[in-house]
């Protein structure tokens, strides 16, 4: 998408981010959850914007050189346009510059589109976490990327 801007998330973005979060997840993060995440210097959060509209976001929590990717969502009407791929690719490059050398995430085992996206970025499924998700109850696939030099 040629007119898409990927930039750091700010607190001013959170109303729009929370709308996407609530549309996407059965147990969405609150605005306060995002505020706390943004204030921690070890974390990195990005948004994708088209014509002043937030259309997607992703973020990680950085702990001892490891990035735990917690949030990744694209607005329904913008899905299947590689936005998630570009967002995560950008996030990983930024994180590596900041000293993160490996990444992990959990994804619902039924979310084949997300699993394929993560595999395209080099993530590999390494384990299953039984009944990790609720609403509905479902296993998580644990995926890893790294170490990145």
UniProtKB/TrEMBL annotation:
<dbReference type="InterPro" id="IPR016181">
    <property type="entry name" value="Acyl_CoA_acyltransferase"/>
</dbReference>
<feature type="domain" description="N-acetyltransferase">
    <location>
        <begin position="4"/>
        <end position="148"/>
    </location>
</feature>
<comment type="similarity">
    <text>Belongs to the acetyltransferase family. RimI subfamily.</text>
</comment>
<dbReference type="GO" id="GO:0005737">
    <property type="term" value="C:cytoplasm"/>
</dbReference>
<keyword id="KW-0012">Acyltransferase</keyword>
<keyword id="KW-0808">Transferase</keyword>
<keyword id="KW-0687">Ribonucleoprotein</keyword>
<dbReference type="InterPro" id="IPR050680">
    <property type="entry name" value="YpeA/RimI_acetyltransf"/>
</dbReference>
<comment type="function">
    <text>Acetylates the N-terminal alanine of ribosomal protein bS18.</text>
</comment>
<dbReference type="GO" id="GO:0008999">
    <property type="term" value="F:protein-N-terminal-alanine acetyltransferase activity"/>
</dbReference>
<dbReference type="InterPro" id="IPR006464">
    <property type="entry name" value="AcTrfase_RimI/Ard1"/>
</dbReference>
<keyword id="KW-0689">Ribosomal protein</keyword>
<protein>
    <recommendedName>
        <fullName>[Ribosomal protein bS18]-alanine N-acetyltransferase</fullName>
        <ecNumber>2.3.1.266</ecNumber>
    </recommendedName>
</protein>
<dbReference type="GO" id="GO:0005840">
    <property type="term" value="C:ribosome"/>
</dbReference>
<dbReference type="Pfam" id="PF00583">
    <property type="entry name" value="Acetyltransf_1"/>
</dbReference>
<keyword id="KW-0963">Cytoplasm</keyword>
<dbReference type="InterPro" id="IPR000182">
    <property type="entry name" value="GNAT_dom"/>
</dbReference>
């Amino acid at each position: 998408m040629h007119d898409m801007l990927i930039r750091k998330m700010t607190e001013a973005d959170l109303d729009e981010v929370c709308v996407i979060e609530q549309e996407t997840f059965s147990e969405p993060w609150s605005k306060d959850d995002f505020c706390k995440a943004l204030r921690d210097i070890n974390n990195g959060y990005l948004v994708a914007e088209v014509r002043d509209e937030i259309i997607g976001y992703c973020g990680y929590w950085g702990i001892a050189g490891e990035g735990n990717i917690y949030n990744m969502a694209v607005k329904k009407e913008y899905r299947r346009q590689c936005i998630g791929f570009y967002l995560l690719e950008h996030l990983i490059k930024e994180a590596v510059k900041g000293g993160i050398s490996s990444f992990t995430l959990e994804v619902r085992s039924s979310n084949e589109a997300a699993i394929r996206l993560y595999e395209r970025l080099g993530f590999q499924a390494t384990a299953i976490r039984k009944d990790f998700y609720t609403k509905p109850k479902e296993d998580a696939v644990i995926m890893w990327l790294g170490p990145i030099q």
